[in-house]
Amino acid sequence: EAQVTQNPRYLITVTGKKLTVTCSQNMNHEYMSWYRQDPGLGLRQIYYSMNVEVTDKGDVPEGYKVSRKEKRNFPLILESPSPNQTSLYFCASSPQTTGPYEQYFGPGTRLTVT
Amino acid sequence: KQEVTQIPAALSVPEGENLVLNCSFTDSAIYNLQWFRQDPGKGLTSLLLIQSSQREQTSGRLNASLDKSSGRSTLYIAASQPGDSATYLCAPSPTSGTYKYIFGTGTRLKVLA
Q1: Residue of A nearest to B93 (CA)
Q2: Which of A49-58, A70-79, A94-103, B31-40 has the lowest mean pLDDT?
Q3: Out of A41, A58, A104, whose CB is closest to B100?
Q4: How far apart, in whole angstroms, are the C-alpha atoms of residue B21 and residue B35?
Q5: What is the mean pLDDT of chain A?
Q6: Pairwise CA distance, residues B58 & B51, whole Å
Q7: A112 exposure class (CB count in 10 Å sphere: 0-12, 13-18, 19+)
């Protein structure tokens, strides 16, 4: 089954404790992206990747890191989480040959930083 | 920078009504526009994708239109049902020269039985 998976689905952590949220897709998509969703602010893009070893900032990249060493995986790293990073996070992927195509979303990761 | 607005922000209708959700965007140089549905606390489900060369796309009771030149898309839901209650989001594709996605803040729909 074609899908985008995220792990963990729920995470409660403390300020400053490094964490990684994994994202994997099995559709051989070039484009992958991370979003956060907050009440009243909607979905905002954190980082995206056009292909292996090619990443760029979205609208809200501060406090996050990403890497794209393999085509299927795009982990989101919070080196020193803070309470303002408490949010619902989504990973998405899209085939990207001659232009942007349909985005497929993962189920989301609910992160709470205390 | 692309800006996306969805009107209305919230909508409550009795079951059976036909309704229209609106999405407007400021940069018309898009490749496509995608409509999503999101249930509370859940992920996004893709409903329809309209390519820039199309004017309409239909799936069951849903019909989406796209007018690139005026920066507008509408999602028409026929014969609404309580199961349609959700938040509906639109996302125009990145425009030429950028690969960033900008989402609207959504329309929260409640269909009353």
Answers
A1: A100
A2: A94-103
A3: A58
A4: 10
A5: 93
A6: 12
A7: middle
Strands (E) across chain A are located at 4-7, 10-13, 19-25, 31-38, 42-51, 54-57, 65-66, 76-78, 87-94, 104-105, 109-113
Looking at beta carbons, which residues of chain A come within 8 Å of B31? Answer: 99-101
B71 touching chain A per CB within 8 A? no
Kindly determine whether residue B31 and residue A107, on different chains, have CB atoms separated by under 8 Å.
no
CB contact under 8 A, B100 and A48: yes
**Sheet strands (E) in chain B:** 4-7, 10-14, 19-25, 32-38, 44-51, 56-59, 62-67, 72-77, 86-92, 107-112
Contact B24, B72 (CB under 8 A): yes
Residues of B in contact with A88 (CB under 8 A): 41
Nearest alpha carbon to residue A73 among A25, A109, A113, A106: A25
B-chain CB neighbours of A34 within 8 Å are none
Does residue A46 have a pLDDT over 80? yes
Residue B100 confidence (pLDDT) above 90: no
